Aspartyl/glutamyl-tRNA(Asn/Gln) amidotransferase subunit B (Nocardioides mesophilus), 506 residues
Amino acid sequence: MSTTTSPEVLSFEEALERFDPALGLEVHVELNTATKMFCGCPTEFGAEPNTQVCPVCLGLPGAMPVVNEKAVESAIRIGLALNCRIAPWCRFARKNYFYPDMPKNFQTSQYDEPIAFDGWTEVEIDDGQGGLERHRIEIERAHMEEDTGKSLHVGGATGRIHGADHSLVDYNRAGIPLIEIVTKPIMGTREKAPLVAKAYVAHLRELLLGLGVSDVRMEQGSLRCDVNLSLSPAGAGTLGTRTETKNVNSLRSVERAVRYEIGRQAAILSAGGSIVQETRHWHEDTGVTTSGREKSDAEDYRYFPEPDLVPVAPAAEWVEELRGALPEPPRVHRARLQEAWGFSDLEMRDTVGAGALLLVEQTVAAGASPQSARKWWLSDMARRANEQGVELDALGVTPADVARVQALVDEGRINDKLARQVFDGVLAGEGTPDEVVTARGLEVVSDDGALSAAVDTAIAAHPEVADKIRDGKVAAAGALIGAVMKEMRGQADAGRVRELILEKLG
Ligand SMILES: Nc1ncnc2c1ncn2[C@@H]1O[C@H](COP(=O)(O)OP(=O)(O)OP(=O)(O)O)[C@@H](O)[C@H]1O
Ligand SMILES: [Mg+2]
Ligand SMILES: [Mg+2]
């Protein structure tokens, strides 16, 4: 038992002096198939509740499921991309438990016969010395299953069931194809555990985007991560009791949740307590996990083979055909882009680390130079995404918008400062970059008439500066340019203003 004097969370450094963390990551990916896993209902996100349902996904008696071939194809491609073996024959199983958002009272899943198993992948993290450090992650399995519906708890403060006065349930999501990708326990990462966990999920996103099998939006729940973590005495090489933190819904939260659990478990163990094997909830706002339900390894889901579905037996030729048509692996893809863009290792790593690789690629495809694309996504956009707590690609600015704004800068119609105001407008829903420029009147003034008048005013207001320039101290022009820019609310063409000042003061 922990005593009242012991801290609730040990510092990360102290925790690692005494313990080794082991990670286990379960990632659920919603596939982007047009129809559900076992019926023809549409899968589009955001429809009116309970409008995309039928007897099969509602689990009405007598309804018969049929496997979605496209979902099987995606599962095989994911398995192959993760270097897994593909089962020549496998079955679905019923995972029995009761939950209001699961209409059948069982989830059609896979148990001891997953479609893909025994794989591996590699993630790269910063080694802290300007280089890269690779970690090989063993994949236990990737199996097919279906999503549940979604409960909405009404009347409570936090949207949680506690304190709510009633709950609603939307079955549109019930039956959407899911792939669950499960790692073997990841050991030996020590203080890098939080970074490795985050890098792994980011890597999976990149890989899945490349495969085109899911839109992998963590904030919309099409990619969800459960973080398993345990500690063992430093150097022991054993596995301790794990907790499973559910639905950690951003990359940053994956890192934070691992860090927090290490500190929390270390405090309990250091005080002579023991870890309860349980699910835990992640709280984005406070950055802590709280206890969910106890859950043993032998959780009795009464799995048994699904009698209403025929086994899945993908032909070897088909699997080989799919293997032959896989896109280039992320590492090869990155190397190719780095060469084409002329990025340094550091620039490339920052781009990947920020989850901006695909966005930069699309921005370049839309006409921007690689450096300008990188600059916008990693500075201004990253700051905005961070402030709003969303991933970059969910910000609401598209690669085409960024490319267009940069084109306006290159044409001299706006400057970087005005460009940021254009993005403000785009994010406020005021339209395309061009529409925002027009509506807000953001174009740079390079018309000599207006500029000349502003320069005259500035010279008159700062005679001592003007004298210096007349005496040949050209560097002093900066002060006058600043005055003109201020007068024209940043909308003057700075280069032209400088020319005019030097012309006038000869
Ligand atoms: N002692 C441990 N410490 C850390 N990770 C562990 C430990 N034991 C198992 N794991 C990892 O935890 C994850 C367990 O996921 P898995 O899907 O196998 O089971 P589950 O969480 O019990 O089942 P469910 O899918 O119903 O949530 C795996 O990634 C596994 O490698
Ligand atoms: Mg699992
Ligand atoms: Mg689990």
Observations:
- Residues 251-270 form the longest helix (20 residues).
- The first strand starts at residue 19 and ends at 30.
- The two ends are 83 Å apart (CA to CA).
- The mean pLDDT is 92.
